[in-house]
Amino acid sequence: MPFKKIINNIEQQHQVTFNYTEDNIKDLRLSPPKRSISLDQKLQYLAKNTNLSFENIGNKFINIYKKENQSPIICGYVFSNMDKKPIENANISLSDKTQVTTDSNGYFEFQKENENVFLISHVGFLTKRIVANNSDSKNCLQIQLDPEITELAEIKTSAILASGISKNKDGSFEIKPKKFSILPGLIEPDALQTMQQIPGVNSIDESVSSINVRGGTHDQNLFSWNGIRMFQTGHFFGLISVFNPNLAHTISIYKNGSSAFYGESVSSVVAISSTPETAEKNSFSAGINMINADIYAKYNLSKKSSIEISARKSITDFVETPTYKEYFNKVFQNTTITDFSDKQNVNYQSDKKFGFYDATLKYAQKIGNKDQLILDLITIKDNLEVFQSATFYDMNRSENNVLRQQNYGGNLSWRRNWNAFNTTKVNIYNSSYELLANQKTTFENQIVIQENTVNNNGFNLENNHTITSLFSFNDGYQFNEIGITNLEQVQNPDFYRKVKDVLRTHALILEGKYNDTISRIYFKVGTRINYIEKFKKYIVEPRIQFNYGINKNLNLELLGELKSQNSQQTIDLQKDYFGIEKRRWIISNNTTIPIQRSKQISLNLFYKKNDWLLDVENFYKKVSGITTSSQGFQNQLEFVRITGDYEVWGTEMLVQKKMNHFLTWLSYTYNHNNYHFASYEYPSFPNNFEVMHTVSWAGIYEKNNFKIALGTKWSSGRPKTSPDNSQIDNSNPVLVYNKPNNTNLHIFSQVNFSSTYKWETTKGIQYKLGISILNILNRKNEISEYYRISSLTNSIEEVETFALQRTPNVSFRVSL
Q1: CA distances (Å), 168 to each of 153, 179, 345, 617, 751, in order?
Q2: How far from 671 is each of 194, 199, 214, 542, 621, CA to CA, in Å?
Q3: Tell me: the pLDDT tens digits for 32-46?
Q4: In 10 A of CB 574, how many CB atoms?
């Protein structure tokens, strides 16, 4: 068909106008393009089959002109960098979105025109960007592609302690709650209860508000929820974690060797993330147990946005279950609330109201293919109201006590993938904490108010760079501002004190990682450089993680870190906040309240073969800058204010065997932990949190949807200080103590049980029933002991606090 007729047909079909000179198209004939294809496709067809070029201006005017000269070509050969063999079917992507592929010899060519930058890609190889200028087919490019080694979140074993718990190459323990199986006494993946099964982690008073990692106090641990530092970790004043167990996707626990991006802790790091690693479908679940009820929902608003909510509330407003009664007895023993009833034996009445709740919200939005915004919000609250009254000697006395504890947090994060090799994360967060106690006494007409508030703001910037398939590099900056207020107000007699301190810190972070899966070497080293504005002080904190696979069954791991912490919890008086939540947050002043500093190193051997697992870790840790008021003394050091350090070394061992559906493990921990107070008459003595020997055992059976676990925990008693009876005058008793922590409590022993069963209907609805019993044998375990002079008998009395008695719990959950 004549070319002129072809373009006339195109003009009529697509409403365009061709501009040309007759000489360029005279006597030109060819087969017409298909009518069904697009305008651009028609123009490409005409250009390919003629010596003409077409310039499309806004799909309205099309200029036709003759090609001046044939464009030069760019050619090349593509080889594998590993074996130097040619790569067939590699894609060469040009900026105009056209592609060519290599042949069996790895050869390609294309017309240069204005193109000299292109990408070469192939499955299994890293994409390469090429800038080329050659136009000589006799001097083609020689291009080598590096193999792409996909770095998985490698673990040494698929299950450690229980399904859903693993240990990573960086030494951290990782818990996946949605894959969590079962542990003795646990039917839900409570993060803070689960971590106490890890060797080296325990709680001397059975509280998730007092978790001790290698001899440290609870406030020396960093608890992070989606990038927000949390200052309250327990509901029911420490017996239940504030983190909804049905919400988290990943929980990472570092006992040592944490990343340089984690600051403000001299002990462990617990990082909880509720962001899924991959897109998930809509879901809903609801559950109830003998303490609380909760709901969870996740809804995809579009392909690029989703919203997730969770809420949990205690059921104590409606019913007092046996579980609640055991928890209440455990929490409130030997507090001012129970002291009131102990001292009165006539016409005593008590009315108590207790409740807690927590709620979270997550909104995620992808913007384009490279950006993502995530908003996280969390609110936590515990509230206790106790009204007590009694009549004695014809006098009425009553107390109205209110204790409130709450933590709010928010985090806005932005993530951008600049390309396959560079990523930036930015997040801004706020965490606000309040502990308030209000006591009104009618007999003495007195009002006592105590308040501890924390406001923490922060900004984090993190850049991740992949240099090669083996080496990556991270850098970042962090700004942190923390303000803490302590208020005490008394009426009759009048007293008022309010102290507020603010501290701002800046941190630069540098971190490099080398991971060679072939030679089994993992090496990560980093440093954190802190600058504290108020003190004009620099603190450098290096970190190291090294893992070497001696062979496919045996790994050697070395971890080390230096860390610091500017805030801590102290106890002014044991009866503050009714003796229930007596710890208050304060800020270091670099003199009487020093900045806490820690150094730690550990060496680990990990062996796995034929479903046997052996993990042995030896460690040394020293924390300086501690104060006596932060250690909870209830002896001659209770009112002494001095500073010092503690030094702990020990061994943690775990032996595990899996046999078909049965998993069993035995762990042992040895800790030798001493205080050092140079200015005190006894410069060295055992740490309050020293538990020298701990042995745990568990047997877990899983088949299909049925799971059952039985386990026991045995530990030597914590230190205590006994009075010197030889120096006590019974007519005028005054407490005189022996050397601090000169003896120990009795052995702690507990047997726990749990079981769950899950089934699913034909409509896809899942049901899960669980039952647990803590302390099956109902053993009376003493967890603390101190002495005081009784105002009733004018004699020295021994005050004992005991762990939970036999405590059952039942849970039921529905998931869609």
Answers
A1: 7, 16, 58, 15, 30
A2: 20, 11, 7, 25, 11
A3: 999 899 998 999 889
A4: 16
Cis-peptide into 493, omega within 30 deg: yes
Which secondary-structure segment (H or E) carries 114? none
634 SS3 class: coil
Confidence of residue 153 (pLDDT cuts 50, 70, 90): very low
In degrees rounded to 5, what are phi and psi of residue 300? -85, 110
Burial of 421 by CB count in 10 Å (0-12 exposed, 13-18 middle, 19+ buried)? middle
481-503 average pLDDT score: 93
Q: Across the strands, what pairs with 59?
A: none
Place of tokens 């709450």: 406
Between CA 146 and CA 128 the distance in angstroms is 9
Pairwise CA distance, residues 562 & 109, whole Å: 56
Would you call 183 helix, strand, or coil by DSSP?
A: strand
Q: Which residues contact 95 (CB under 8 A, 6 or more apart)?
A: 115, 117, 118
Residue range 143-159: mean pLDDT, rounded = 66
Distance, in Å, from the CA atom of 62 to the CA atom of 57, rounded to the nearest integer, reads 6
Q: Provide the pLDDT for residue 155.
A: 44
Contact 570, 501 (CB under 8 A): no
Q: What is the mean pLDDT of residues 652-662?
A: 94
Cα angle, residue 286 at apex, residues 280 and 288 outer, rounded to 5°: 145
User: What is the length of the chain?
Assistant: 816
Instruction: Give the C-alpha separation, 217 to 225, whole Å.
Output: 20
Sign of CA dihedral 185, 188, 193, 195: positive
Q: In what order do the strands lie in the sheet with 173-175?
A: 165-167, 173-175, 250-254, 269-273, 222-225, 228-229
Confidence of residue 281 (pLDDT cuts 50, 70, 90): confident
Is 463 in contact with 443 (CB distance < 8 Å)? no
Residues 6+ apart with CB under 8 A from 150: none
Strand pairing report for 269-273 and 222-225: parallel
Summary mean pLDDT of the chain: 89
Say if CB 712 and CB 752 are below 8 A apart: yes
What are the tokens at 452? 């501890």
Write the Ramachandran bin of 720: left for phi over 0, alpha for psi from -120 to 50, otherwise beta: beta
Q: Is the pLDDT of residue 340 over 80?
A: no
- Condensed to tens digits (0 to 9), the pLDDT of residues 397-432 reads 777 889 999 999 999 999 999 988 999 999 999 999
Q: Classify 59 as helix, strand or coil.
A: coil
Is 169's pLDDT higher than 80? yes
Nearest Cα residue to 291 out of 337, 226, 357: 357
Distance CA 665, CA 161 (A): 7
> Please, what is the Cα angle at 143 between 138 and 144, to 5 degrees?
145
Return phi, psi of residue 388, to 5°.
-130, 145
Which residues pair with residue 425 across a beta bridge? Answer: 415, 462
CB contact at 8 A, 617 and 198: no
Is the backbone peptide bond immediately before 177 cis, with ω within 30 degrees of 0? Answer: no
Separation of alpha carbons 518 and 460, rounded Å: 34
DSSP secondary structure, 780-794, as one string: --EEEEEEEE-TTTS
Residue with tokens 């606000």: 432
Give me the amino acid identity at 431. S
Give pLDDT, residue 114. 56
Per-residue model confidence as pLDDT tens digits over 289-323: 999 999 999 999 998 899 999 999 999 888 889 99
What angle is formed at CA 457 by the lines to CA 452 and CA 463, rounded to 5 degrees?
145
Going across the sheet that includes 117-122, the strands are 99-101, 91-93, 117-122, 125-131
At 303, the amino acid letter reads K
Q: In sequence order, which residues have a C-beta less than 8 Å from that of residue 56 and are 6 or more positions away?
A: 39, 40, 43, 62
Rounded alpha-carbon distances, angstroms, from residue 472 to 120, 170, 507, 514, 516 = 22, 15, 21, 7, 11
